[in-house]
Structure formats: structure tokens, C-alpha cells
Amino acid sequence: MTEVGTVRRSVRERYAAVAAAVSDSSATGCCGPTCAARELDDRGVFGAGRYDPAVTAGLPDEAVLASLGCGNPLMVAELREGERVLDLGSGGGIDVLLSAGRVGPSGRVFGVDMTAEMLTLARANAARAGVSNVEFLEGRIEAVPLPDGAVDVVISNCVINLSTDKPSVLAEMFRVLVPGGRIGIADVVAENHLTPAQRAERGSFVECIAGALSRAEYLDGLAAAGFVDTDVVFTHEVAPGMHGAIIRGVKPLARATTDAGPASEPEWRGLLPLSQVGAAGGCCSSGDQGSCCGASAEDGCCGGSTGPAGSCGCR
After folding, report:
1. Residues of the chain whose pLDDT is less than 50?
2. SS (H, E, C) 148-163
3. What letters, b where the CB count within 10 A reaches 16 and e where it falls short, cover 43-62?
4. Secondary structure percentages of the chain, helix, strand, coil, to 5
5. pLDDT tens-place string over residues 101-122
6. How far is it, in rounded angstroms, from Cα 244 to Cα 238?
7. Which domains does the chain have, with CATH numbers?
8. If DSSP codes are grouped into helix, strand and coil, which group holds residue 72?
9. What pTM was computed for the model?
10. Dihedrals φ, ψ of 245, to 5°?
């Protein structure tokens, strides 16, 4: 097995064990879920301790106990009613369930995870919580099983550092976002002076330490993927020179067609729900034109050849 395969298997086995510990407290040799939580994180730099208890009070205990994150990405994601959200490495579903409450019944939240045991736990937690606007998908964060432009926001909690192909993860985040979409990521990030070898001395890959990017590497990677308005802010130390951090970024709005370059999607496409964007590239589908098209949208779409006043569409 290759080194990449070995790392991926180790990560999968660790999180499968976490799901088992939460689902069956006897797996930890304890008599209750509080012991399982203590076994999963006894230092306070990872796990449910990173959330305000008032925020998680309404969630199933199993969702809270399964959290091994290093922050709370919802603190910066600023989710709004009706948005579509993707959680990369959704685990037991804590951030998916919290997001579902914020986007409301008109929104939808997708969780992607590669561990079957975590997916089973997350689906059970959604059922316990009575949440229906969520969907948990099996897959890898390097190859997200969603189409281009499927979501408005991407969140993730201490998972990207576990990937052995981080450029692909960042590229996938960019791909699945609509123009104008944004990311709110919690992850472990190293200070710039630490070499990869020095990071590995501070902890293993599956402990979310050895695989962490430096702050400069993160910013460079986001820029290479196409993100703008990026920032990496340290929140708390998890090991010497290693920090929990919040990462932000925005996918630029597409520009209108110019003589200097190829045609691109008009800016307004990134501002509308997918259901209101015409599949053939028109302003809107015929059934939605009355509600989603305005003069500026028509002009950008139709190149100035708009329909008569009071109508929607191109001549």
C-alpha cells in the first residue's frame, strides 16, 4: 500500500472507531456517553468544547460527542435563510445540523464523509433531531459528489489537514461554489517557520498535526484555486507553533463577456438559487422569469437586446 493509502486508511479507521465509541459506549469500556467524550478529547483543544453549550443544547448527544473539530466554522460562515451549504468531512453531523437550523426549511445542507460508520451515525442523528433539509453523501473531499456551482457556502471543521491532496480539496471547494460563494473553514494551521518535519514532530497525521499547512501555504493554495479576500486567523494553540484557525475566502463573481476574452457566466448567475437559473444560459427559465429577472440582469445576459418593458427575456 502506498503512503497516501496508508494515511487514508489510518484516518478512516480512527473515525470509524470514534463513531463506534459514540454509538456504543461499551466500546470505550465506560458506562455512559460522557466517558466516551472524555476518551475522544481530554485536552480541550479539539471536540465539543469548541462550541458554546447553548448552541449545541438542542442537538442529539451523539452528534455533539462525535465532534473532533478544532473550532466552530459557523462562527464565520454567516449562514442565511435559503442558502445551500456543504460540510466537508461531516463526521457525526454536528455542523450539518447546526447549519440546517440557520438556513431554514428553504435551504439545504450536504455533508460529505468517506467513513461509512460516521455516515450511519450522522443519518441517525438527523433522524433523532427531526431535521429533513440535510443529506449525507459518501465520498472523498478531494472528489466531492456534487455538480459545479451546487452550493452557496462550504464549511469544514479540522478535516482538510487530514487530506493527502490538499490542492484538490481547495479546487473542489471552488468548483462546487456558485460565483460569489464563500468558505468558512476551521482547521489546524502551522506557523510559517515550521518545516513539515517539525510539524510531524509535534503530532501524527491522524491527530490533525503532521498534515497541517502553514499559514502562508494555506493562503497560497487558496489563491491558486482562485479564491479572493482570503484570510487565516489563529484562534488557539493546539501544539507548539500549531494553531486552530479560521479560514475565509470568496469565489469571485463571474465577469460579463468582453472583447478581450472568452464568454463567461454573467454576474447575476451567482446571486440566484440554481433553480432560478436557466439551464441553457438564458436569464431565467420561463416559469421563473417574472420573479428573478430585472433590467440589469437582462442586460448582462442579453447583451443589450432585452425584451419589451415589463417583460423578461431577450429579443
Report:
1. 26-42, 256-315
2. CCCEEEEEEECCHHHC
3. eebbbbebbeeeebeebbbb
4. 40, 20, 40
5. 999 999 999 999 999 999 999 9
6. 6
7. 3-250 (3.40.50.150), 255-315 (no CATH)
8. coil
9. 0.73
10. -150, 155
